[in-house]
Amino acid sequence: MTEHPKIILDRILSPARVCYQCSTCAGGCPVFCNNPEMNPRLIIEKLILGQVEEVLTSSYIWNCGFCLICTQRCPQGVDLAHILVDLKNLSVKRGNTPVGVLDEMKTLYLTGLTQESSKTVLNRRKKLNLPEIQYPDLSEIQKIMDVSGFNDLLKLNLRKEETSEPL
Ligand code: SF4
Ligand code: SF4
Prior knowledge:
This protein has 167 residues and is an all-alpha fold. It folds into two domains: 5-93, Alpha-helical ferredoxin (Fumarate Reductase Iron-sulfur Protein, Chain B, domain 2, Orthogonal Bundle); 99-163, no CATH class. The chain is 61% helix and 0% strand. It contains eleven helices and no strands. Residues 19-25, 41, 44, 74-76, 78, 80 line the site of one iron/sulfur cluster. One iron/sulfur cluster binds at residues 19-25, 41, 44, 74-76, 78, 80.
């Protein structure tokens, strides 16, 4: 059973309001250091200013690595890392999943892994005498995906991808 989008939106916007834009989150964010597009302070500012749609259709929210530094350092106790998780969840519910993430969702459903090992990796493991990769029980994983609503979200995003205009 997936959460209603309004509940998620309320959970995002209420804590964001106490942010006083000190930029401590951005200062410690390892992603922002290398990619100025992914600015956690700016994301919060946009949410406070009501520019939620812009944030939800952006690709930069997907660059957060969930390292939790922003959450640990925010003097106002804004749990930015989890706000970003909620933003991604809302984005998926609207069919806005970026292509790379959608590919991972597909692979996860078909193989139980987010990424299949390449031949090069498998050969290298063999040369290094590493044990064979253990694959998870796919039927169990697919059952969880069906009952949790993951499968419906995957279909929704695939339909949206098929009907979207080429860039
Ligand atoms: S550290 Fe907290 S208060 Fe400062 S800008 Fe980031 S979210 Fe806002
Ligand atoms: S959790 Fe995300 S936004 Fe926060 S510091 Fe880490 S990468 Fe940056």
